[in-house]
Amino acid sequence: MGDIDITTSQWRLVEVGRVVIFSGGEYNGRLATIVEIIDHKRVLVDGPSEKGAVPRHSARLSDVALTTIVIPKFVRAAGRGYVRDQWTKAKVDEKFAESSWAKKSVRFQKRKQLSDFERFKVMKLRKQARFEISKTLAKARASA
């Protein structure tokens, strides 16, 4: 009939060297990297992050979220020293801090810490900003 070219998505595959973030449990919000794939539901992770280290252990894939950061040419079942060296060489902490995921997380945590009155002040400021934007937009429409 014809040649069919089947390609798979290379976006966020479970692979050795992929950086993950824990989405719950004891290590919630901490970064680690996949060192070895145990089976289709579990991976061996190790996280030498400066903000919060994650010891080498088996983690369920349902407890972690895959990020877009991959440490290139990562060796399977690498030792702790190699993982730490590659982590710093790839500047994983800096890359994650620049990502929109980290920025949203910081913003969410800051909002979570607000008191009732502070939330009210944020609402009023957002209303004022929205009013100014709509007023400027109305002027632009009128002149056009």
UniProtKB/TrEMBL annotation:
Single GO biological process annotation from the record: translation
InterPro entries: Rib_uL2_dom2 (IPR014722), Ribosomal_eL14 (IPR039660), Ribosomal_eL14_dom (IPR002784), Translation_prot_SH3-like_sf (IPR008991)
GO cellular component assignments: cytosolic large ribosomal subunit
Keyword NAD: no
Gene Ontology MF, one: RNA binding
Residue ranges of domain Large ribosomal subunit protein eL14 in the record: 55-130
Keyword annotations from UniProtKB, A to Z: Ribonucleoprotein, Ribosomal protein
CDD domains: eL14
Top-level taxon in the UniProt lineage: Eukaryota
PANTHER family named among the record's database cross-references: 60S RIBOSOMAL PROTEIN L14 (PTHR11127), LARGE RIBOSOMAL SUBUNIT PROTEIN EL14 (PTHR11127:SF2)
Family designation: Belongs to the eukaryotic ribosomal protein eL14 family.
Name assigned to this protein: 60S ribosomal protein L14
